[in-house]
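[job 4417] fold queue: 2 targets
>>> target A
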Amino acid sequence: MELKNIHNDPRLIRRFIPLNTPGVLVLGVFLLIGVLNSTNTLLKPVGLISIILLLITSKFFLFWYVICRSQARVPRIVVSFLFTLIMIFVVYSIKFISTPVTFHGIKIIYQLVSVVGFFLFVLLLDWGDKTIMILSRCVVVLVVVSLLFLVYNYTGRRSVNLNVFGAILYHLLFFLVFAFSVSHKKLQSLFWGLTIVVCLFAIFATNARSLWIAIIAGLLTFYSWSFIIKNKLIFRLYFVFLFLIIGLFVVLYPYLNTIPVFIDFNHQIYEITGKNFFSQRERLWIVLIEAIKEQPITGYGSNVLPTDIIGKEVSAHNLYLQIFLQVGLVGLLLFLFMLWQIWEILRLGSLNLQVRITGAFFIGILVHQAFEVSLTQNHLSIGMIQWTIIGIGINRCTRCHDRGISIASKDLSLKGGVLT
């Protein structure tokens, strides 16, 4: 069965929101300008305006698509996933209503609604190879600009938060890898390969250790993919095992600085990287874990931030802890179930090379969220890129699923990165 033209099948394209060259350029520019919101420059408000405009525009086109297009319908394979998203919103809304209204509470609810709307918009776009290639070229421009920012930053002028900036580059790396995977000419492959190397260099220059762990987790997933998708049980156990490790790390990490072996390990890490293994997160997490123990089931409310617990402005540096703090075990389990559903959807198109790349980055995103907060709140400039990656992957799975192509097909094989 030939699959090279599956993404150009008119029976599938007519179900998606058409995205021509000017449209994808506008989307790319909005996404990339939004990155400025993570800098400490005079251009920070410009980045915020770009994010707001993109969120408003995505809602408008989503509304137009659903209301005005007779063939519009949500893909069947994501219906249950969307239902879980709605349930998460309901839980947050109930906690919002049951606690005193604050600006932070309103902001978090708005961010959650905006993220859901933006994700639906991305999911329903016509993500053909050419479309993503155009977006990837926009990313190249940002990689070049990022090098200038890093040079400027290392002159002693702190224009960017290196952890945040490195995270942005890591997630933009997806588009460069995607472009490399669909390049058929040697010169194009060389160009994208060199760009990937430059982007990786910029990421490592930020010294963000959480990104190193995310990259390792992603590479492990990518190169183990054939084994992971071997059967449903292994595929599911991989996801469960990942969160068991994340959970154990979050619980045990705060206490490791009292063990001699890890004190020596910390010294070795400092000699190699110039940064400590213990990043002060351990002190923060202990306080948050103790606070969570007092309200474990329903949490403190969507308007509560770690700042309210710690007494000073600080991030939880862990999305799962922040959700646990706000909406308790109920909200956290719903969120984890939503991530599980995304993972299950990716299995439907797992023989597609681009879905494989998405799966690797998805695992990297989940690992990264054990150290930062961006997928649903806080750093939306990163979160929107993360949901774009996930949306593109699910979009590919949707196309394969609608053609009756799944991992059960015995006449499919991966040869040289192309499904044939």
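>>> target B
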Amino acid sequence: MSKSWELVKTAESNFIFDRPVLQKDNTPDKVLVYLAAEVVEAAQAYEQLQDSPTPQNRKEYLQELADIALYLLALFRMASASLTDEVMEKLAFNYLRFPSKQMQEGEKADCYPRLKRRCRREKLKERFYGQ
């Protein structure tokens, strides 16, 4: 994990723990509601950016995306899980689930439908996640 990502994680954690007023509202159910609100705000900021692509509107959009990232980071912290580990695991699964364009359309295109059927038949998702 990069040094800057570790710094972000530490800063987010310290921010919450240094502010008791935020700690009481820092529960997964509340953070999920806040996250949903931030997604709406990001969508609105994106729409504004599309209508008027100014540096200020771009910055507003990026700040809303940063808010989303911080809420996700908080949720992973509350779940005692690593966001980076979970993202890498999900990417690995998606690489299996959604092969590259070359695999889908190239010389191995005939393998792609078989691979998809095999994934479904073998319940690959359940095996991958150990469920």
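[job 4417] complete. Note on B: The mean pLDDT is 79.
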